[in-house]
Amino acid sequence: MYPPSHSPLHPHYPNNAKETRLDDIEDSSPLRRGHPSAHTKFGTGPTVNAATYTLMTLTASIQKHLGAEALDIFLEEMQHLGKGQALDLHWTCVRECPTVEEYVGMVDLKTGSLFRLVVRWMVLGAGREVDEEVTVVGLGTLLGRYYQVRDDLLNLTGEVSSFFSCRVWVLLWCER
Predict the structure, then answer these.
(1) What number is the average pLDDT over the span 111-131?
(2) pTM confidence score
(3) 38 and 17 in a common domain
């Protein structure tokens, strides 16, 4: 029923997360961490289909195994991720360089959402109150900033794969 488990199009393929499959298509990135992006190898249609199917399966699994509150957290953070990605794409499309504050805001939405998701689920699982969550969730946002800024800087210097995100392209374009 699925593509072979060693295929990046398989929903449970470990090295090609669903959101990065879509991100690579949106950014026209030929590489992901030095390896061909799934859409360049298998085509855009099959890659979008595999990513969408996997996200729907994940959503159903969260509701079934973690409950409604965990699903609400997931959906909220995925909306933040989408808003951050929209800002990223906007700056590329209009060839506009974001300010530092705008860039950090985008990172907080886009990458911070993934870190906050994990932290918020941990707080939920620990049965903590909302007041205690604020400090821990802030740590998740800071970890997202660290990860994304480091990743973008390494991409700019060429020390990591030649993966080319929109943020990197915008920063290079602004240097012209």
Answers:
(1) 85
(2) 0.73
(3) yes
